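Exam revision sheet. Question 4 asks you to relate a sequence to its structure. Input first:
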Amino acid sequence: MTRRRIAIGVGGAVVLLAALDAYVVTTILVTVVGDLGIPINRLERVTPVVTGFLLGYVAGMPLLGRLSDRFGRRPVIQLCLVAFAAGSAVTACAEGTQWADGIITLTAGRLVQGLAGGALLPVTMALAADLWEERRRPVVLGVVGSAQELGSAVGPLYGAALAAALDWRAIFWINIPLTAAAMVAVHFCVPAGRPRERPGIDVVGGVLLAAGLALVVVGVYNPEPEESALPPWGLPVLAAGVAVTAAFVLWETRSRTRLLDLEGTRRGPLFATLGVSLLSGAALMVTLVDVQLVAQTLLGEDTMGGALILARFLVALLVAAFLGGLAAWRFGERPPLVAGMAIAALGYALIATWPEGLRDAAYGPLPRMDVDLVVTGAGLGLVIAPVSSAVLRTVPAARYGIASAAVVVARMMGMLLGIAALSAWGFHRFHSLTADLQTPLPFLMSRQEFARRLAEYQEAVRDALRTEYQEIFWITAVLCLVGAVLALAVRDGGRVSGGAGEAVAETVPGTRS
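Answer key, structure tokens:
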């Protein structure tokens, strides 16, 4: 028992390492933009740095997870750690005489990090399935999943703290000794054997899924959003992405070896639950990126100051995640899912109506900004545990590992598609709102006149940014409302009966003598 716990503890630590890096860039984007010489009003140029990691994470997760079924858990974890370290080194080396050189290097490094990091969660979950019997497995899977969730909450603060104390590149350099230590721990603690059954690997399905997502992301990425929300190649590339995704779905229904085997599952409740996970992921990523941008572009905060403002949301997220688990155990999964997405929708509506003098706004004695961020974080946090629990109710026990990973895949897909689409639309709106602004030049006018015009110009830019952020948060509120409606179709375990304590005791290791 002790060796199994050590093995899964090491696996959870590896998952946490990758999860931290999924979110570190959200608090350092403005710093990176300045370091690479990109104007603050051209933030769209750094979007691939965020979407590149998420794309790799989603693409690598199911395919490399299945690879471990064939070749064993330990070698795949070690391979991913080596690739993760290599991607970190490439990311840390990003620089160039032109901004495009730095962005290309950053995106390439983050893509490799994402591919490697995305595989670590399903492989560790599969390891848990190898080591624990069916009745105790859900609790162990929950422990591994909590490491992923902890990374989403701590990652932005971790990145901001390292960037403030050292440099943003230190965030990625430090991964190299951390992965080396993880390699040693994995070698001594994770069993080396291969699974008895060695299933085939759905390479075609993995390639189709990755290609479909990549085409959608490329289709909405517009480096010059002044004229339109989509780039010139947008519509044909998006159409190709939809076609490839449809081909993936068709392949999965007919292939003998499937990337996501849904046999024996209740598909309606499963898809509803994954839909909630996808929409909550989109909302989470919008918050991590745009609240930080609000803090740095409108409130004048630095990287650490913006992270501390975001901390209100993140702390509420963690506390509510625990409460959501208790609520799901006591009342079933559907009530906290519906309530959580509805509360999140309310929170985003409140954020969308933030006034110009936000620092002075209050609800009586309570600062408005703090209250709104706590409400939003509490709403999304309530969803975390019930959505995983609800998925496990829709699948046979033999598919707990892939089902748990599917929840994270759906959330990361929501993050990827949400930030890509909303960024493309938001940047276009910003440029359309500022199209008629003329940057004042200190020629043929007095210093006083130049100072006055410059102040007017800066205020107009802030108004445009405020409008862009407000509209993005309104859209996010609508997405959360859709999630609340979807949650009504989630299969509910129902209220716990008087014998629940005994059932829990049967599930939690060590509670039975």
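Marking note for examiners. Strands lie at 362-363, 366-367.
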